[in-house]
Predict the structure.
Amino acid sequence: MNLRFTKMQGAGNDVVVLDATRTALALTTQQLRQLADRRFGVGCDQILLVEPPQQDDVDFTYRIFNADGGEVEHCGNGARCLVRFLVDKGLTQQRSVRVRTLNKTLELSLQDDGRVSVDMGTPLFDHLDIPFDGGGLMPRHEGLFELWPLSLADSVSCEVAVLSMGNPHAVQRVADVDQAPVALLGPQIEGHARFPKRVNAGFMQVLSRREVRLRVYERGAGETLACGTGACAAVVAGIRLGWLDEAVEVHARGGDLRIEWAGISQGLRAAVRMIGPASTVFEGEIVL
Ligand SMILES: N[C@@H](CCC[C@H](N)C(=O)O)C(=O)O
C-alpha cells in the first residue's frame, strides 16, 4: 500500500499524521511500527489518525498510536499538531476545533501568534481511573496531595505522584533532570506491576514556583523530547503538592510549554490548559 503522510513535531515530540477523513484506513500493528521506525519507516514517537466525527458535538475523531503500535487515549503535543494539520490542509475553516479521543473531548485553538492552546480537560486522581494499585502501602502526604513509594530493581526505590490526564502518569521530583537516571528507571516504572496499563514516567526538576524542567519516559515510545500530557501531569502534581503556582513554564529538551491549572483556586474539576508550538516537518508517501 502507498500511504501519504505528514510528519510534524510539537516541542520535538514527533508525530506522523494520517488523513482518514475521506477514506477509512486500518493499519496493522506491524504497519504502525514500521511507520514509526526511524530506519525502516518515517520515524516518530506517535502516529495520529484523523477520522470523521462519530458524535454530533465534535468536529473530528482523533486516534493516537504509540511507536510500539499500541492505541492510547491522549497525546498533548499531538493535539497541537493536529489542529495545525487540519487548518493547513483546509480540513476545517475554523481556528478552533473539538476532537474526540478514545476517552476525552478536547478543544484545540490556533492562536494568532502561531502557537496552539489546548483545553486538556480535567485531571483524574482516583486510582481506578489511572489505573494504579496502592499495594497496601501508605503514601507520604505533602501539600494537598500524596507521594507513593515504588520499589524498583536492585533495592532502588522512588516516590511518585500518580494521576491521569486521560492517560496514566507517575511523576517524581529530581534535583537535576540532566543527572536523572531516566533510561534506567524509566522502563522499570513504565512496566511496573502496580500500573496495570503501564505508565508514562515523568522526572521533574523544580526551578521556581513558575518554572520547571521535565523529562518523560513515555509508555510505548521511550524517552521523547517532550510530552504534553506529561507536562500537564507534572504541573498538576506540583501544584497539588504545594511546589508550584497555577501557571508554569515547562522546559522540555525539545521546547517549552506553558501549563495552567486553577485546581487550588477553582477546585479539582478545573480543566488544564496547555499552550505550545506545533509545526510541519515534511510530507511524503511511504510504501507499507
Ligand atoms: N507524547 C504524548 C503522549 C503520548 C501517549 C503516551 N505515550 C501514552 O502511552 O500515554 C503527549 O504529548 O502527551
Summary: The radius of gyration is 18 Å. The chain has four helices and 19 strands. The chain has two domains: 2-121+278-287, 140-269.
